[in-house]
């Protein structure tokens, strides 16, 4: 089954005092209902959101809930992330049955893991990120092993970054575009580029870049990175123009992917597709320059084995520059049979 997905910026809800737990619960439940979740499924989302938000207050004192609609092969799902910056969280204790955070219905994180269709977490002295993904009853499609953390500068309703991911048996194609500047005009540039990519996402990256260049000519233009993974050849084709960062990560090493200078939609001297192999079981990470480039997953023991959505959120939490839109896209490169 072929699937093309893209999304909007992450909805961030502050959790700093008890009344915000109820707001987070209602917001998550409404989001689920808007995607066609029935009462039982929307109730699961609400219950887990309540527990995770309460967990933030109890263990960290303050933090954030990150909510987004999760593109899926059938009906869209819901993704909920609890993010904090306080160390000392004991994951093994909190996951044990019978353990509950204060002020909740007492289901505990062990039950949260069972209520969610996908659950994962990473905790260390810098803080904790907990992930829960939900799909509607009857949706049997497997989880897509990717994660995105996308945030507009100062919660602007317009985000100058955009992304897209196309998945098919034996491969995927990923794109991230950063429109020049930020705000509405940057967003329009990014949307023009994304539309051109989504028309033929499995074309060769250098051909896609040319299509995006034409589509973005009447806009501000922007920086673009395109990566196409072929599981049968165990290789990744990559083309980049501008300062969108791209790399391949394994537990042992990180390989940066080569880009050329220029502005897509304005001018660049050269476009070239580079081939990287072998890449199976690597993580592909693309991010805009709203994220610092000095991160290293080896500084976070065990993080490279976590769900890509957890990895994207940890990187955003710890390395956002705070002065531009920021998007982090993480995809697991692996053979799929569906």
How is this structure best described in words?
This protein is α+β, with helices and mostly antiparallel strands and 338 residues long. The protein has two domains: 10-134, Heat Shock Protein 90, CATH 3.30.565; 146-332, PPM-type phosphatase domain (Phosphatase 2c, domain 1). It has seven helices and 16 strands. The chain has helices spanning 19-34, 39-59, 91-95, 108-115, 184-199, 205-215, 308-319; strands spanning 3-5, 11-15, 63-70, 77-83, 118-124, 127-134, 146-151, 161-168, 171-179, 222-230, 235-241, 245-249, 254-256, 274-276, 283-287, 326-332. Strands 1-8-9-10-11-14 form a six-stranded antiparallel β-sheet, with helices on one face. 49% of the residues are buried.
Count of the domains: 2
- Termini Cα gap: 6 Å
Query: What would you say the CATH architecture of the largest domain is?
Result: 4-Layer Sandwich
Helix-strand pattern: EEHHEEHHEEEEEHHEEEEEEHE
How much is the average pLDDT?
92
CATH superfamily assignment of the largest domain? PPM-type phosphatase domain
By secondary-structure content and strand pairing, the structural class works out as: alpha+beta
The number of strands is 16
Count of DSSP-assigned helices:
7
Instruction: Indicate the low-confidence ranges by residue numbers.
Output: 101-105
CA gyration radius, whole angstroms: 20 Å
The portion of residues forming beta strands comes to 25-35%
Q: Determine and state the CATH class of the largest domain.
A: Alpha Beta
Biggest beta sheet summary: 6 strands, antiparallel
- Looking at the structure, what is the overall shape? globular
CATH topology of the largest domain: Phosphatase 2c, domain 1
As a percent range, the share of helical residues equals 25-40%
Strand order in the sheet with the most strands: 1-8-9-10-11-14
């Amino acid at each position: 089954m072929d699937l093309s997905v893209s999304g909007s910026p992450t909805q961030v809800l502050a959790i700093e005092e008890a009344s915000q737990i109820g707001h987070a619960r209602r917001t998550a439940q409404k989001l689920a209902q808007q995607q066609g979740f029935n009462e039982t499924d929307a109730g699961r989302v609400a219950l887990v959101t309540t527990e995770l938000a309460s967990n933030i207050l109890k263990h960290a004192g303050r933090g954030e809930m990150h909510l987004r609609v999760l593109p899926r092969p059938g009906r869209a799902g819901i993704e909920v992330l609890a993010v904090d910056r306080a160390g000392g969280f004991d994951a093994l204790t909190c996951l044990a049955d019978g353990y509950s955070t204060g002020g909740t219905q007492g289901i505990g994180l062990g039950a949260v893991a069972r209520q969610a269709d996908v659950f994962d977490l990473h905790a260390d002295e810098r803080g904790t990120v907990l992930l829960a993904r939900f799909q509607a009853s009857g949706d049997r499609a497997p989880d897509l092993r990717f994660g995105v953390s996308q945030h507009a500068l100062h919660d602007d309703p317009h985000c100058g970054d955009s992304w897209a991911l196309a998945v098919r048996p034996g491969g995927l194609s990923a794109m991230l575009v950063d429109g020049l500047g930020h705000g509405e005009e940057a967003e329009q540039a990014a949307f023009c580029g994304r539309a051109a990519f989504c028309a033929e996402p499995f074309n060769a990256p250098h051909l896609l870049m040319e299509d995006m260049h034409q589509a973005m000519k009447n806009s501000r233009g922007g920086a673009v990175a395109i990566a196409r993974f072929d599981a049968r050849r165990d290789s990744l084709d990559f083309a980049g123009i501008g300062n969108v960062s791209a790399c391949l990560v394994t537990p042992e090493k990180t390989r940066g992917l080569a880009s050329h200078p220029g502005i897509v939609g304005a001018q660049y001297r050269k476009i070239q597709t580079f081939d990287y192999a072998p890449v199976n079981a690597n993580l592909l990470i693309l991010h805009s320059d709203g994220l610092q480039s000095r991160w290293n997953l080896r500084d976070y023991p065990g993080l490279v084995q976590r769900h890509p959505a957890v990895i994207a959120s940890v990187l955003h939490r710890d390395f956002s520059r705070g002065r531009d839109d920021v998007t982090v896209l993480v995809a697991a490169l692996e053979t799929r049979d569906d």
